[in-house]
Amino acid sequence: MSRLAAPWHKLPVSLKELCIDTTLRCGQSFRWRKFDDEWRCSLYGRILSLKQDAECLYYKATFPDKAAVAASQGALSSRSDDAVDHDDTETLLRGYFHLQLDLGALYDQWSRDDANFRKKAPQFSGIRILNQDAWEALICFICSSNNNISRISQMAHKLCVHYGPLLGSVDGEAFHDFPSPAALAAPSVEAHLRQLGFGYRAKYIAQTARTLCSDKPEGWLEQLRNPACPAPGQTEPVKAVDADCTPSYKTAHEQLLLLSGVGPKVADCVALMGLGWGEAVPVDTHVWQIAVRDYKFKRIASKTFSRAVHDAVGDHFRGLWGPYAGWAQSVLFTANLKSFSEQLKGAAGSDESKSLKTGVELEIKEEEDVQTTEAAVTKSKRKTVVKVEEDAKVVTVRETQTRSKRSRR
Question: What is the distance, to the nearest Å, from the Cα of residue 315 to the centroid of all Cα atoms in its chain?
């Protein structure tokens, strides 16, 4: 099915400016898969392959044949025949990774302004916010509700396999593009997604797809994008289709809240990673844990966050870190994930390692690498039962945590 399998090209960028091993698996995008030292994903009507050394990012693109391109036209991320004939992958990657921004200078600024960031950041350099397709980000973060990275990745993969156009295969692995709103708006979608294990999220996905197809004007979602942060490959300004939607972070956040399955945290994830609003700070249990442990926020007994709590945490970090507060937050978020926190051991001392395991009395979802091929039982205070499932040649790990009964004050 492949029309063109390009050779490897290189893009000079240091690990301090971009570390794909961290950026692609820290809960921003859920469709990148790693094969040995190579990351692969279907984006913009092509199959992208990436690998990296200390000085360069290496990339190649595998394009589908004309029949597959025609079948891909329903997907928002597909490109025209002109894009297939002309390999614009480098331009897309520069936009996708925001390479126009000097990440080192931002890290220096955040380190000067925040002692906690200065302590954590040296172990987590090169983390950039991805400039993703807004529709893909919206649906994937709807799937993130009460979920972990492994299961979100599994759901994103199922959406592509069952509803996205097939672009081709690399080394025997099939790759589908992300499905369009029209593909997910069909009457049968909700029931089918429930059969595939999406649970209550199936309703939200189907309703949001129908809203964008039937109730909103074409281009409504993209008009919420930050004009200073165009989508990868975008060459012309986005046309306004709703006079009430003046581009701003607050407008984007409030408009996203009108969609089914979108709360404040999901709205901020989409605003930050799908619409280019760098000041958006998604507040989940990990970020709340950081706020309590490191920034003197008072603990709360509730397992859910009020809008006031969410806004207070976001405003605090925006005041501390500035217009790219969401970028700084992602560094501390990554440091707080169990799968990454081991990097701090030794560098920060035993007290730091202990503090990373100390949580507020909220349910903390533990993230595992979606590419893990063996079940591993983590020795911790919680007993964990690990169930290995195989879905479309990708083995994922589901964790079911059981808690001992505790007396609470």
Answer: 22
Is the per-residue pLDDT at 164 higher than 80? yes
The DSSP line for 24-56 is TTSSS-S--EEETTEEEEEETTEEEEEEE-SSE
Q: In 126-248, where does DSSP find H-type helix?
A: 134-142, 149-163, 181-184, 189-195, 201-210
Can you give the residue ranges of every domain in the chain? 2-361+372-402
Question: Could you write out the DSSP letters of every residue in 260-317?
Answer: TT--HHHHHHHHHHTS--TT-----HHHHHHHHHHH-PPP-S-SS--HHHHHHHHHHH
State yes or no: is 265 an active-site residue. yes
Can you give the pLDDT at residue 246? Answer: 78
Non-local (6+) Cβ contacts of 329 within 8 A are 281, 282, 287, 317, 321
CA 277 to each of CA 20, 103, 119, 269, 282: distance values in angstroms, whole numbers, following the listed order = 21, 16, 26, 10, 11
- Selecting among 60, 158, 265, 365, the annotated active-site residue is 265
Separation CA 220–CA 259 (nearest Å): 12
Q: How far is CA 225 from CA 43, 74, 237, 253, 326, in A?
A: 19, 21, 10, 11, 15
- Beta pairing partners, 34: 39
Tell me what the pLDDT averaged over the chain comes to.
81
Say if residue 80's pLDDT is above 80. Answer: no
Which pair of tokens denotes residue 362? 């909220």
Q: Name the phi and psi angles at 276, rounded to 5.
A: 80, 20
**Do the beta carbons of residue 120 and residue 328 sit within 8 Å?**
no
| Residue of 396, 395, 401 whose CA lies nearest to 151 | 396
- Which sign, positive or negative, has the C-alpha torsion 328, 330, 331, 333? positive
Distance CA 129, CA 140 (A): 16
Residue 282 to residue 310: CA distance in whole angstroms: 8
Q: Is the pTM of this model over 0.90?
A: no
